[in-house]
């Protein structure tokens, strides 16, 4: 069941999996956790995002007004996204999109459409119709973090437009896995312990790479798939850690990548000491500042230090390979 292969000169643990088509198990009915309900993520399933209602459009206009964004987009055009936040889950994608929406030249679909992984059979026109209207010079965006780990997503996005700009928010894969587990635990309190899911065998310390919380963090493997369809110049890798510690600095890089004027800056942020996350300062016309939801900053469970160290050792060669591929050292080791 376990196998080993060479990655960048290192002998690395790998598991031979049969259903490699969707790395995040988006189409597999296999249970990700014992006692968890089967996921209904198949293409064409009933949870497809609906086209925006008039109430939603009105609400978006009010939000736009409160942020000083022009509301004349009613007369704009629905376009395919020129930029997509494709990953990663629990990396900071929601924060990035919220911060980007401050910019008057960015218009984003609010929910995660999951078009290129779950609902591709609905067709490109269905997808385009989900998007907000934009004026010339504005950028249409969406974010669906599971795209990064979906094997078919790169070819499908390239079929739409091979010039699409791709943003990947990455984070230390160990803390990302813990955050992923914490989120699932909050919804399923009867989950087994983190260590029992992360390790195949506690005595050998072999990592279970069939667990999605572990597999998502193999950034180098996922990126290899994307680079078959898009050049590296089409990607921006955003540090999830720096998005928290220096949101304005990281947002400067994002705005440059998108060809936008640097509008989002230090003046838009303050640090919430209680949550440990940056918040957006009170927008004009709003009675309070905008912070991320209650789920952000939830306490993580206690995990044995030896389990965390085993994970760090496991990820190290993959991290180094990712640094080489992306041209950035994220300092996770």
From TrEMBL:
Secreted among keywords: no
InterPro entries given in the database record: NST/OST, P-loop_NTPase, Sulfotransferase_dom
Pfam families assigned to the protein according to its UniProt record, in alphabetical order: Sulfotransfer_1
Recorded topology in the membrane: Single-pass type II membrane protein
Record GO cellular component, one term: Golgi membrane
Main location: membrane
Catalytic site positions: 90 (for sulfotransferase activity)
Ranges for region Disordered: 34-70, 283-302
Binding-site residues, 3'-phosphoadenylyl sulfate: 90-94, 171, 179, 296-300
Name this polypeptide is given: Sulfotransferase
Phylogenetic classification of the source organism: Eukaryota, Metazoa, Chordata, Craniata, Vertebrata
